[in-house]
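Standup, Tuesday
Yesterday: got the pipeline producing structure tokens again.
Today: sanity-check two examples.
Blockers: none.

Example 1:
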Amino acid sequence: MYFSLSIYTKRRLDGKIVIITGGASGIGAEAARLFTDQGAKVVIVDIQEELGRNVAVSIGKERASFYRCDITEETQVENAVKFTVEKHGKLDVLFSNAGILDPRGSILDLDLDRFDRIMAVNVRGAAAFIKHAARVMVEKGTRGSIVCTTSVSSEIGGGRRHGYTASKHGLLGLIRTACGELGKYGIRVNGVAPYALATPLTSHDEETARQVEEEFAAKGVLKGVVLNARHVAQVALFLASDESVYVSGQNLAVDGGYSMCRSVNVQI
């Protein structure tokens, strides 16, 4: 039996062009650093201009660039994809990672304006990027990879974050339908579903981050390790790379078993 080790002896994204949305901080920034370390050139897309430019500069202008984009505006999304293709000639990977969170609250007091905003960013924004990225991949005959950051909240309920949970369920549905259509072009579509972790989305300073980590670690199933942005970025790297060449339509949990065990962790 012949087994090639070449995939493990070279950088995993050599020559790949990648768009990362929400790349100015958190999981997206970690992915930008990790992907470029593995040979990719990345375009960091975010509405946070100063942070995004700083991440790109820290990586180096030969490997990373920044494009400011409000992902709720389709024209801006289309222009971000055009910018990438004009700069690099192609697009191999979309890591659709941008998202926002709503506060916990009762469904009886649901703020529908805030709900609409969350759906616009977390679902509509992702849909717009999938649409325009896939168009380019199809036009150029690129067997690309589309990876979306979902959440454990895409598979389970609870938590009283109604807008966020609804949006992540919707995003997972989008991943599955896009997978079914784009497979004939050799384009893979997957989700990466992290457990709760301390990022700028959930904490605003070091003290809050420490408290968030302690809370989530206490509730988590897998002990002895605290989930961080790098862990999630590493799974996104796997889905972006040719190591996952026959993986599509999946929602790969990075949750230490939480979503599998949560329903049975009830004392009877």
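Example 2:
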Amino acid sequence: MSNANINLRQAVRAFTLNYGDPIKHLNSLLEQDPNNNIAVLLKAWMLVLSNDGPSLAKARKLIAGLTTDKLTQRENGHLRALELALNNQWPSGVAVLDRHLMEDPHDLIGHQCALRLDGYQGRFHREAGRAARALPFWSKEDPDYGIMLSFYGFGLEELGDFSRAEDISREAAELEPYGYWPHHAVSHVMEMTGRPQEGLKWMDSREVLWNGANCNNRVHIWWHKALFFIELGQFDQALAIYDDEILPVMRPVATQLCNPTALLWRLELLGLDAGSRWQDLLPLWHEQLAGMYSPFNEIHAAMSALKANDCPAYNSILENMKSRGQGNSELAPAYNEVAVPIAEAMNKFVNGDYKAALDGLLPVQGSLWRMGGSIAQRDLIEWTMVEAGIRAGEKNVAMSLVNERLSSRPDSVINARFMGDLGE
């Protein structure tokens, strides 16, 4: 294998494992071969998937330098998908990748990008079908089979097939012990099935694998560990994770900033006071807002502004969201019908108008997936809805929502707390 191919393989593995530095390998490759189109396209994808304004501008510049009449079929597919993603046409971008992967089911770059773009739209579950289409073309002897299997496991978890998701993800974790997706998928299964003690054991037994500088998503894994402590009623432990583990290593990019925002919001719903942490967090969001285009991220940015008591920042974020809801991108309906109502309801909640907050959130409950993120991430809105019902004195509504939660997590400390607040 040539040095160029070695660097490309190492870059693809680092990108799809979310472990290591793909940029280092891509830069080495491009020094040897400045016209290596797939390396340029992968660098552009990494910028696009970070989904903040400055990175999107860099991605546009990168792909503008490609000589399009010399692209292979694979490269053309990635370029078309990138151009759509850069123009906020995420569903169409995924559709291009899906069609491409039917022709090239071994393209791990395509699988990871489709998975991530689907996730930004609340459609992680689609990876189950995508991986199921591809896996028969793979062999267990293929070097990266564990990566492909890990994509399947996470898709199954988001589909609600928790038993198969856990089995497949544990198998993938054995094959790729440093892989983010299999560890992440098992953590999700533990969260969604109400097994926080097992979740902590899973985290602790593998911490040496995921808690290091090479693990690019360790902030999110720490967030999951904090959720397990919350489910066990150990709120101080969860806050300690924020202070001691998340803040020291968090990068100021929107996809990472959602984690501390969501964690502090949950803890304050439970009665803890985050104090000046909100004021410290909001400036990091300010750096990302220009050019950011993501309902999920912008909802979290709005929540951070509300909690920091920065009304101008909140109003600016809300107006941007409203403007995008009136635009012609494929994301406009998600902004207009889901993201804006959530942001407005969160404002009502923070300002003590719990009845209005509840009335704003209930109509979007069935469409929460459209804000983006995973089921576990969107549960933040469900929590807020329950708490709004309790504080508004809407006992029947709140009880109905808690009953729904109890059906999947009967032993949850949080659900028991909700019941106690309702006098049950």
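Quick observation on example 2: The chain has 24 helices and no strands. Residues 1-123 form a domain with the Serine Threonine Protein Phosphatase 5, Tetratricopeptide repeat fold (CATH 1.25.40).
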